[in-house]
Amino acid sequence: MIWWNNEMPALERLTRMGSSAMPAHLGIEFVDCGPDWLCARMPVDHRTHQPFGRLHGGASVALAETVGSIAGALVLDPDRFACVGMEINANHLRPVRDGWVRATARPEALGRTTQVWSIRIVDDLDKLVCISRLTTAVISVEQK
Fold first, then answer.
1. Chain Cα centroid distance, residue 104
2. Active site residue 65
3. Which domain holds residue 67?
């Protein structure tokens, strides 16, 4: 298991962490996790649409960075280290007009100073909507 102290994350606590930030504005909720993955969902509605009624690519990227950054933080000793985004990319593959999308983050590399996470976003029918890669920097808490 990759999580700090081999403890599965408390999903409700992760959702509450974003209650006064962008994740709450977009309706992002953490819904599931496993020994090496973390999953969050986001509604596809007026908050996350682009002007033509489809899921906004920026909303997908915000979801991907949210789940990847939180997953990155969960593998570190929070008293000593923090995780901050360095680079993210995304390929938007399929439009979504309504319902929910789910993003699942899995580590590709968990280094001493950087992490790389792959995030797959799927729709209600489990069809791939977006694939993203997030690189994070591991910094000491003093640098925060």
1. 7
2. yes
3. 4-143
CA nearest to 49, candidates 26, 20, 15, 22: 26
Pairing mode of beta strands 114-122, 128-140: antiparallel
DSSP code at position 80: T
Residue of 29, 65, 87, 108 marked catalytic: 65
Q: How far apart are CA 9 and CA 117, in angstroms?
A: 17
Domain count, the chain: 1
Residue 66: CATH number of its domain: 3.10.129.10
Whether the Cβ atoms of residue 106 and residue 117 lie closer than 8 Å to each other: yes
pTM: 0.96
The residue with tokens 């994350």 is 9
Q: Which residues is 42 bridged to in the sheet?
A: 101
Along the 144 residues of the chain, how does pLDDT read in single tens digits? 999 999 999 999 999 999 999 999 999 999 999 999 999 999 999 999 999 999 999 999 999 999 999 999 999 999 999 999 999 999 999 999 999 999 999 999 999 999 999 999 999 999 999 999 999 999 999 865
